[in-house]
Amino acid sequence: MICAMSIKNIRLDGSSRFLFYLGIFFIGFALLASEILLTRFLSVVFYYHFAFFVVSVVLFGMTLGALLVYFLPRYFLPDFTYRHIALYAYIASVFTAGSFVALFWLPAVLHLWGIGDLTMPVLYILLSVPFVAFGIVLSLAFTRFSGEIHHVYASNLIGSASGCLGVIFLLNTFKNGVSALFVIACLGVLSACCFLCYFRPGRAVKRLFAGTMCLLVFLSWWNVSAQKIRPLWVKDNLRESANLYETWNYFSTVSVNRPAGKLPSGWGYSPKITSIQLKTEELMLQIEYDAGTALINFQDLSDIDYLKMDVTAIAYYVRPPEDVVVLGSGGGRDLLTAVLFGARKVTGVEINKDINDVAFHKFKFFSGSILNYPQIHFAVDEGRSFISKSRDQFNIIQSSLVDSFASAFNGAFALMENGLYTTEAWETFLGRLKDNGILTFSHFYFSRKPYMMYRFLALARASLRSIGVTEPREHIVLVRQRNFVDETDGIGTILVSRSPFTPQELARLQAITSELGFEIVFSSTVSADPYFLKVLESPESGLGKAFPFDITAPTDNKPFYFHFSKIQDFFSRNPGDQGVVVLRKLLFVIGGFGLFFIVAPLVFHWKGGRAGKVSRRWAFYFFLLGLGFMLVEIALMQRLGIFLGHPIYGLTVVLFALLFSSGVGSFLARHAEGKKRMAAIFVPFLALLGALTYLLPFWARVFNASPMFVKIALAAGMVVGTGLFMGMPFPAGLKRAALPNAPSLVMYWGINGFASVCGSAIAATLLIYFGFQWTLTAGFVCYALAFFLIFPKTGDLAMARTVEAAG
């Protein structure tokens, strides 16, 4: 795009256009498939919240690649265009495979002094290299073939959209992320081969390209069975042994290995567990090499009677279970616990189909005894969606450590599990309980910082009041298990009942907890921590002021259950939340690289007089477009990830729909000339974006119980409508700003790229501290200011006021 004004257009030969368009298609496919696959790799090595980091890496690399084409005209000569496209398509493919695999050997240590500070910059450089090459290829294709731009752009668009869906097919087919990576890289090399027919490459080049494709195909096939290429470092830990079994799908990695300890696997057992004689064996099933669930090999129910000694099962002692739902059934431990207590129907809800397949089919020889109990049923669904769709009433709805706090400690803001920890979710759960039903959640209880327990109470209070309970304390019990090794930290289990707990039930619970070595830390008669009462009794608006940390009840608008720091602590030396430290590092790394590699060259270019006349008004216009686009995109990814049940759904649906629709919008924008036509773009777009900001939560609530294909169609429809308009302002603005002064085009394009790179991290920060609606509102404000900048007098005034307010 940035070179179209200064380089003569190259015409394609009609007889060979197909191969050129096919090559562009494969490049688009490889680019988007690589981007989505990279989020999977980072989820394994690091954590879920790196999705916005991936978006920034891709934008940074693409922008830098396009700038290199512009700044090095003596190297990127028009006569060698086909050679350069073929070469950099090959480089992009090889480096995609190389840098992504190298990620597995990069020490995934974020907090160790010295190494942790270097991890982010090294990671950013390593992963951006292939996207720089992708940027060079697409920049050359768009600028050197401007006469064919519509066909070239359409080929890239169709390829990119296909890549969004194709990566799902590849992961589900190969069941191995590295094998899928090699196939994607092979398609990239195939795209390079499509361009070879436009010049006469040497025999060595042909052999190199063919040999690389053969090698990638072989590695893909070999690693499916051998699985020799796997992460060495995972979440701050060095892996010392291989898994017994491993499989990938489009949103998780499931592995099976042997547990290290001799005691039954679990975190909430009574100290009495050390005195029992085990008659069972266990294997550990792990998701993303982190969150674990036990597979139990047993012969008779009496062999697993020790499951009653876990604090996560304390609800079964209070009221007899009949109809039980376990959210996040995993390897089936909680399902067996319900059977032990006499439940007549037990439904295990698991979003990850591969967990059920591995636990009860692939390892049926080991853990298949659970299938002998007809009262146990399985449902593959997101827990909240299942409860919403169900017409049944339940005695107990249980969720026990369905996520890993390690991810929160290391700075992850896991979106799938957080959909269960919101006021709207708990209101839904309570609405599906029988009058004497109990909602029970368990998580880690840290003595020095029991923030999660405070938030449990805040959630319970908010959800109980939403169903009409005026005295929440009588409906809540919090039981604590102490780690019997050092008796400090442990597991906390909250019981939330639709009906008040009776004195008889509390007395029975007191007897059981004393016998098992647990402790009731909060009930209608007990409060072991003065902050517990403060949470229950403080006004809702005063919770944020009453505590030095944020323990307000999460909502669908702001679902980050594991985030406790306040905005004023973001730049403090010790923010009290490790996730803030990671996010802060990412902001500095992204901003620093953007300034050094994008802004600095642009300023040097401008100072040298080679950029022509640059208007501050239009520069600000393109900056606002880049920032606004990312605020809207990342906000929609987060909110639709909650709605659809997993962040990878949000990423895939939003990228596919936004890419397709904004591309169509960019194509239509060729007719948008003049202020009136540009206004005709902005006015309906701002109206649509404003409506989406405040109506999307309502639509999500109404359609939450719908089948997945309906939810995906609805989400895609909302994104397509918005993206159609989002693709128009940039090319329309370039026509007005750059055509009278062609050399300034690169400045505007680079400013937009820099804003986009930084915008992903800014959007993540706004989401965490202010929520979805405020982030989308910030995007609305950016586009509204850009709209005013179209008109010279109004635009100059708006820019002056904005700069003054920022100062």
Indicate the percent of residues in helices.
Answer: 55-70%
User: What coarse outline follows from CA principal-axis ratios?
Assistant: globular
| Cα-based radius of gyration, to the nearest Å | 28 Å
State the total count of DSSP E strands: 14
Arrangement of strands in the largest sheet: 9-8-7-10-11-13-12-14
- The chain-level mean pLDDT equals 83
Query: How much of the polypeptide forms β-strand, as a percent range?
Result: 5-15%
N-to-C terminal Cα separation, in Å?
34 Å
SS-based class: alpha/beta
The helix tally amounts to 28
Contiguous runs where pLDDT drops below 50 for at least 5 residues: 1-8, 404-417
Largest sheet features? 8 strands, mixed
Main features:
single chain, 807 residues, alpha/beta, eight-stranded mixed beta sheet, 57% helix, disordered N terminus
Task: Explain what the structure shows.
This protein has 807 residues and is of the alpha/beta class. Helices cover 57% and strands 10% of the residues. The strands form 3 sheets. An 8-stranded mixed beta sheet has the order 9-8-7-10-11-13-12-14, with helices on both faces. Helix 4 (115-144) crosses helix 5.
Strand and helix map with partners:
Blueprint: H1 17-45, H2 51-71, H3 81-102, H4 115-144, H5 149-174, H6 177-194, H7 203-226, E1 233-234, E2 237-238, E3 245-248, E4 253-257, E5 281-287, E6 291-297, H8 315-318, E7 323-327, H9 333-340, E8 345-350, H10 353-362, H11 364-367, E9 376-380, H12 383-389, E10 394-400, H13 405-409, H14 415-418, H15 423-431, E11 433-445, H16 451-466, E12 476-482, E13 490-497, H17 503-516, E14 519-522, H18 530-537, H19 543-546, H20 578-607, H21 616-644, H22 647-668, H23 675-702, H24 708-726, H25 729-738, H26 745-770, H27 772-788, H28 792-806
Parallel strand pairs: 7-8, 7-10, 8-9, 10-11
Antiparallel strand pairs: 1-2, 3-4, 4-5, 5-6, 11-13, 12-13, 12-14
